[in-house]
Design a protein that fits this description.
90 residues; alpha+beta; GMP Synthetase, Chain A, domain 3; disordered C terminus
Length: 90
């Protein structure tokens, strides 16, 4: 159990990140935590949706911070993107 990701720690960390994203007219919402694999799914909204730097924000910003602060986080994915990609490959 100790090696599983704490959803509560992920949630608290996202609340710390949120003001910086909101300052750029966007927002971030937690959509899921796979406690077994460590994959966190978030949704970026507002200005983040059309921003070409949103992938950088997600990977270099959000993912890095979550990996640093929450033991067991292995990756951060954008909500809807992974689902859409798997639907295309079917």
């Amino acid at each position: 159990m100790e090696d599983q990701v704490s959803e509560e720690k992920v949630r608290r960390t996202i609340e710390v990140i949120r003001p910086a994203i909101q300052a750029d007219n966007g927002d971030i919402f937690l959509r899921g935590v796979d406690t077994e694999t460590g994959v966190v799914t978030v949704e970026l909204t507002g200005a983040c949706v059309s921003c070409p730097a949103s992938t950088v924000t997600l990977k270099a910003g959000v993912e890095r911070i979550l990996k640093d602060r929450v033991p067991g986080v292995t990756a951060v994915e954008q909500y809807g993107v992974a689902q859409a990609e798997s639907a295309v490959s079917l």
